[in-house]
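Lecture 7 notes: from sequence to structure.

We start with a single chain of 71 residues. Read the sequence below before looking at the structure.
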Amino acid sequence: MKVKPAEGRAVRFPGTLRLLEKSGADVPETAFWLRALARKDVQRVTDSTPSTVSPAHPAASVETATEKASA
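Now the structure, written as tokens:
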């Protein structure tokens, strides 16, 4: 799961004591991070950037569901 520190909070990784970056990081879904979520020390980060998918073959035609059904 990806989390970032809540506004005005500083959170350290357990074990290394490295600070969690403001932009967030992928962390394991362990009891430590789940408690941090419950205490509102961190927030889940949702990836809102749309992913772009490029076709494997740009010249390939795209079949619609209707074309596939009639085949």
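The two ends are 42 Å apart (CA to CA). Keep this in mind for problem set 3.
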